[in-house]
Amino acid sequence: QVQLVESGGGLVQPGGSLRLSCAASGFSFSVYAMSWHRQAPGKEREFVATITRFGGSTTYADSVKGRFTISRDNAKNTVYLQMNSLKPEDTAVYYCSAGAFYWGQGTQVTVSS
Hints:
By secondary structure, the chain is mainly beta. It has no helices and 11 strands.
């Protein structure tokens, strides 16, 4: 059974940091590029960041470039999103995805004072 389980979301003040994790099981993790996406209330889901199979290359949305870092540990079947200098506009449900084929259930991130 394929599972992607996100964790690490929560409430944080503007300027703060959070680290999201996504634990994968039920498929060959290292076969897939992994990505993070987010969906804010009333908006469409948008791309945040992606990382290639062995972590050699990463790509970010302009809105998070320089603040967020995606990484992965293939030995642990886990992908991470380190989020620094968080802004209220980063508030959303964050989803991880394997090759845009498998999706997790999401974790809520709220940035508010």
